[in-house]
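Project standup — Tuesday

K.O.: blocked on the structure for the chain from last sprint. Re-posting the sequence here as requested.
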Amino acid sequence: MNIFITGCTSGIGKETVLALAKENHQFFLANRSAEKTNELIKTMQSINPQVQAHAIIIELSSLLSVKKAALEFLHRQQPLDILINNAGVFGQKGLTQDGYEMAFGTNFLAHFFLTHLLQPALSRANNPRIINVASDAHWSAQFTSWDQLRRKTKSLTAFDEYGFSKLANIWHTNEIATQIQYQGIQAYSLHPGVVKTGIWRHIPKPLNYFGAMPFLKTPQEGAKTTLFCIKTNGQFPNGQYFSDCRPAQTSALAQNLQLQKELWNYSLQAIQSI
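H.V.: unblocked you, prediction finished:
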């Protein structure tokens, strides 16, 4: 299989790739750091000398960089079996290079654009799959207006911003299941658990109580649901949300079909001129 994954030089993404490296897949590893990606490829090759892995440089806070990364894959004219939208930020204030709130722009909009661009390659594969790494943090998300996504949201905490970006990941997954151009492509979203990764490093220490909690999952444990979504034989409904390798409930807001459709249209407009 051809597997494209974002954010895999550490944490859940890295453990996902290392688990899959035991099998003879072809990997497209999309990260900011070429050096760290090449180190990862060496580790993968030590696990399986036959593995094929390619480094793709991507900066998710720039939609132009996302486009360049997608085109780098598309120029190969190969089908794409699995797209794993894994990368995420938490607690980074400010705006992306395109003027969107950082968590929304990086965790959701960049992956929406990447998925949109890679859809033709996914459609050429047999049993293609999109996996969006979301979070149960979406349960606390609130929606006020789409305008909030184009300004520095001083009134929102890092948890609010992160939660809304993950809510958007779930809406994205659900809407893919309804779109004609994605027909034949299975899309899943998931909660990996509360995992001890570097994502906590941008939270000020007085608020960063999660990072020290003993109940946190290891990245290897956090990768299990992603791996489950890759390997499941398609017996679950398109758009299903998972937690701990089982179907899980989403919030009432995540089931708001009107806002789901509005987000889709808002996002299409956002990427139109890129």
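K.O.: great, moving the ticket to review. The two ends are 29 Å apart (CA to CA). Residues 2-271 form a domain with the Rossmann fold fold (CATH 3.40.50.720).
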